[in-house]
Amino acid sequence: MTLRLAVRPKRPEGMTGFALVWAGQLVSVLASSMTNFALTIWAYQETGSATALGGVTTAFVLPFLLLSPIAGAMVDRYNRKLMMMVSDLTAITATVGILVLHAFGMMQMWHIYAAAALTGLGNTFQWPAYSAAISTMLPKEQYSRANGMMSLVETGPSVLAPMLAGALLPFIGLTGILGLDVATFFLAIGALLVVHVPPPARRAAGAAGRGNLLRESVYGFHYILARRSLLSLLLFFLLLNLVIGMAYQVLAPFVLARTGNSSTSLGAVQSAWAVGAVAGGLLIGIWGGFRRRMTSIFLGEALTGILGLILFGLGRNLVWWMLATGLGAIFMPFVNGASQAIWQAKVAPDVQGRVFSARRLIAWGVGPIT
User: Is the pLDDT of residue 14 over 60?
Assistant: First the structure.
């Protein structure tokens, strides 16, 4: 008698596994962006003021500002695949709550604020977990390509979501949009369930950073400060973002002052930026960028400044501004993808959650200054 042993099918890994996770996230974020658009319409119809959603941004960002270092420590402590799933489930809980409240006619503005805080909590864990997972799923030469693909998750929905939500709202209403959002969350989690996400290799840096949760939470800051190359890269981008951020602050008044306060013209320029960023993400995702990552950073920043700022300022009509903005935005994924790839390659895998959370928190601190 011949015994046949069942062979366990191999889970997708490498670029195939990453592509599955990426596709699930892309669809899920698109649906979530559609939900945000639909909720903006609902808030305006209920309150008569779109500014009623101003508190939503605060509610979303607050968990990140308060808990980001702790989230990074937990990403390094526990299974990263599990942390990614928990972050998605946290967002699902918020969306399901809004869906039920709206279906029974009980939804109020404070419910949206609470849902935004819960979603922000999930996002606080999601970003470092996904960023750190790339370094264990892929070889170093694929990092820039993967980060270019991830940039599409951030920029692609901003282009498509308003159009799709606007087209679907008259037919399926807010309840239908929320239902789609919930369904796509399960697609994202399903993709995570089937892929293999290798655990990070244990290094001396990880051992040095072990301790109680508070000690591990601040270790990311110590790690950056102790490494001159990473600190220099961080300071370079902080200075660059500060200067470019101040320049971009005047673009909206610039357009409005020359178009008779036309919100349509301003919206067209902003849409051109989003389209350019999507095109850049697609290009990096297909090509992978320059072999020398600093070439991508310096060339990308130079072209963004020349096209997106200098060429923009020389224009006097809407078509010129849209073209300059779109062309300048194409090169932003070059810069961000290469920078992220450097961090993924240089930071020990078992401390990346803490380091990436610390780095992002510091970078966000520049935003209010600009």
Answer: yes
SS3 content of the chain, % helix, strand, coil (to 5): 85, 0, 15
Does residue 323 surpass a pLDDT of 90? yes
Overall size of the chain counted in residues: 370
User: Residue 114 corresponds to which tokens in the numbers above?
Assistant: 């609470």
Question: Which structure tokens are listed for 38?
Answer: 């639909």
CA pair distance 74, 26, nearest whole angstrom: 24
pLDDT at 369 over 50: no
The conformational region for residue 86 under phi > 0 = left, psi -120 to 50 = alpha, else beta, is alpha
Express each pLDDT in 211-229 by its tens digit: 888 899 999 999 999 999 9
- As a whole number, mean pLDDT of residues 270-279 equals 90
Q: How far is residue 59's CA from residue 110's CA, in Å, rounded to a whole number? A: 10
Listed residue (78, 76, 84) closest to 126, CA to CA:
84
Closest C-alpha among 87, 79, 37 to residue 188: 87
- Model's pTM, two decimal places? 0.87
Nearest to 114 by CA among 71, 60, 70, 47: 60
What are 256's two structure tokens? 């409005």
Report the alpha-carbon distance of residue 174 to residue 177 in Å, rounded.
5
Domain positions in the chain are 14-194, 205-365
Average pLDDT, the chain: 88
Closest Cα to residue 206, out of 73, 351, 352? 351
SS3 (DSSP) at 294: helix
> What CATH class has 14-194?
mainly alpha
| The CA-based dihedral angle spanning residues 216, 219, 220, 221, taken in that order and rounded to the nearest 10 degrees | 140
Distance from C-alpha of 62 to C-alpha of 160, rounded to nearest angstrom: 27
